[in-house]
Amino acid sequence: MSLALKQVFNKDRTFRPKRKFEPGTQRFELLLMDWIELQINDEHIFPTNVGTPFPKNFMQVAKKILSRLFRVFVHVYIHHFDRVSQMGAEAHVNTCYKHFFYFVTEFNLIDQKELEPLKEMTGRMCH
Hints:
This protein has one domain: Butyryl-CoA Dehydrogenase, subunit A, domain 3 (Up-down Bundle), CATH 1.20.140.30. By secondary structure, the protein is an all-alpha fold. It is 57% helix and 0% strand. The mean pLDDT is 86. The protein is globular, with a radius of gyration of 17 Å. It has helices at 3-8, 26-29, 32-41, 58-86, 90-106, 119-125. The protein has 6 helices and no strands. It comes from Denticeps clupeoides (denticle herring). Keywords: Metal-binding, Zinc.
């Protein structure tokens, strides 16, 4: 494994950027991965006990999470893919994206209109 990949996948490091905003401000509260983590860990949205029903708004929340994660892929591909390639992680990111794309399209979890930003690339990658 290359040195760059070892640095990325170091278990003592996190992918979350350091917060540069003052606590209590709106910008401080807008970190995407924190919001997703809060949703996934909320027992009212994602119940963990057998027999506990999912809430009526489960699909709405799940679709919102996946839609926002798609935007992360868009950002990575448009703004950071040169760095991903330098690290030798291109195949890994592409595989993650393909799995994500096939999942959300198989179950119609993201509107086709929202998938437009990566439509051309997706057409080449996902036959």
